Amino acid sequence: MSGVPYLLSIDHLLSDEERLTWQAARDFGTRRIAPVIEQHYERGTFPRELIPEFAAMGFLGAPLHGYGCAGMNPVAYGLTMIELERQDSGIRSFCSVQSALAMWPIFAYGDEAQRERWLPGMARGEIIGAFGLTEPNSGSDPGSMRTHARQHEAGGDYVLSGQKMWITNSPIADVLVVWAKTLDFGSDTPVIRGFLVERGMAGLQTPETHGKLSLRASITGEIVLDEVRVPKANLLPGVQGLKGPLGCLTQARYGIGWGAVGAAMSVYERAREYTLQRTQFGRPIAGFQLTQQKLVELHNEIGKGLLLAYHFGRLKQDGKLSPEQVSYLKRDNVRMALESARTARSMLGGNGIMGEFHIMRHLCNLETVYTYEGTHEIHTLAIGRALTGLAAFNG
Ligand code: TGC
Ligand code: FAD
Questions:
Q1: To test ligand 1's pocket by mutation, which of 85, 216, 246 has the most ligand atoms within 8 angstroms of CB?
Q2: Cβ(93) to ligand 1 under 6 A?
Q3: How many A from CA of 100 to the centre of ligand 1?
Q4: From ligand 1's centre to the CA of 375, what distance in Å?
Q5: Is 80's C-beta closer than 6 angstroms to any atom of ligand 2?
Q6: Per 3-state DSSP, what percentage of the chain is helix, strand, and coil (rounded to 5)?
Q7: Is the CB–ligand 1 distance for residue 96 below 6 Å?
Q8: Are 79 and 18 in contact (CB under 8 A)?
Q9: Among all residues, which ones are annotated catalytic?
């Protein structure tokens, strides 16, 4: 941890390698991301020039083994997510999408030829990935997707049509993992399948979405598919049904559950520093009891979020982490981070809304994090279903 007091002493629970990974990610964030992030956020641009450095740090495909990936254990991976999101949720998003939503499905559902073709270049940051699930009329309920794929002869190519929206990195992606309701030749039962759609395929467009007031240092766009011919070799053979995309989301949500703690740490540390320096009524505002109560709440909530992430990380390491536990982690830590950012913002008074103090940027970002990868409400219902056995999604 930093020089800022944290009474939890989580370092005690980490291996030497995990501590070193954490420190290296912290140093990288401070040295390379912190100096440029506010400017990118204001301009609404993503620091593409840092992609080779993310690769050199092992952030791309970090938890995967082989194919040039770092093979980090789940706790070490989580600690890197903390440090990326401590800087900006958009930076963590880039690495989450590349690692968990684009590389992971190729790794887990792809064949060996697909893995060899895509993963090493993606780990090096030379090939950028995206994940297309959400559509204009299909967000929380991805099973209602309209994007479809048809095969017109046995063993032949597929033809994809449809529209995906809110897709991180789609305008710069070289390979897009697109989920579509698929009719194989001779079948009359559509099944959700994943396709590797490549930049340059005729009929593919990826227009950028402008006007975001949140996650501004992240590129978001659509995927428009107009009769795009995709070879059978680009179909992910290893999965069918909604569990395909939901399995990827479980990987990405795990990383977000850690990353959100980083955003909370950033706003707590900034609020502490500011309130120690700012004087009103003749004394530092950190000396007022109400301010200390806020600092203590921020600090203690971070500790609980970190312990939850750590515990689930060790379960994941043992192959025992369930999707419902990942919902618990994503839901509670993102809520905690968002509430922390609101509290910290108030502690800076007027300065709290200024870019140079960074808290408002985290607050705006966390509104997106609260919504993507399953909204707060959807995760509440997923946990509710686990507790009661009753699914409340349909009313
Ligand atoms: P349901 O009947 O519950 O499940 C269908 C099948 O999927 C399996 N499953 C899961 N598998 C892995 N992980 C999970 N979390 C899973 N949840 C369910 C389930 O076992 C079943 O398998 P099988 O073998 O029986 O067929 O499906 P449902 O239609 O009732 O939906 C459940 C619900 C609402 C929880 C699900 O649809 C959901 O999670 N909705 C939210 C959609 C969402 O999260 N979209 C995110 C889009 S991607 C994104 O936001 C990226 S942001 C990128 C960035 O970081 O920048
Ligand atoms: P809706 O599903 O329409 O939900 C609107 C509101 O209704 C929410 O509050 C929701 O909780 C509530 N609601 C819906 N159903 C229920 C219910 N059954 N019970 C109670 N409340 C309910 N998607 C991708 O596929 N790939 C990406 O890379 C990606 N990146 C994104 C980047 C950004 C910046 C953003 C903002 C979104 C991104 N998304 C991506 C999409 C994201 O996953 C969706 O926005 C999210 O799943 C919610 O879908 P929706 O926006 O259609 O909202």
A1: 246
A2: yes
A3: 14
A4: 11
A5: no
A6: 55, 15, 30
A7: yes
A8: yes
A9: 373
Q: What SS3 state is found at 162?
A: strand
Name residue 53's amino acid: E
Longest dimension (CA), the chain: 81
Average pLDDT for 132-144: 98
**Region of residue 211 (left: phi > 0; alpha: psi -120 to 50; beta: else):** left
Q: What is the pTM of this model?
A: 0.98
Contacts 24+ apart (CB under 8 A), 315-321: 316/74, 316/254, 317/73, 317/74, 317/75, 321/254
Rounded distance from Cα 331 to ligand 2 centre (Å)? 14
pLDDT of amino acid 106: 99
Q: Given a cut of 70, is residue 1 above it in pLDDT?
A: no
Summarised one tens digit per residue, pLDDT across range 361-375 is 999 999 999 999 999
Contact 240, 191 (CB under 8 A): yes
Sign of the CA dihedral running 367, 369, 375, 381: negative
Atom 54 of ligand 1 has which residue's CA nearest to it? 93
CB atoms closer than 10 angstroms to residue 231: 13
Closest CA to 95 of 262, 305, 318, 313: 262
Q: Which amino acid is at 394?
A: N
| Res. 2: pLDDT tops 70 | no
At residue 152, the 3 state secondary structure works out as coil
Question: For the segment 184-218, what is each residue's pLDDT rounded down to a tens digit?
Answer: 999 999 999 999 999 999 999 999 999 999 999 99
Of 148, 245, 167, 149, the residue nearest 205 (C-alpha): 167
Q: What is the ipTM of this complex?
A: 0.98
| DSSP reduced 3-state for 183 | strand
**Pocket flag, ligand 1, residue 85 (CB < 6 Å):** no
Rounded to 5 degrees, φ, ψ at 261 are -65, -35
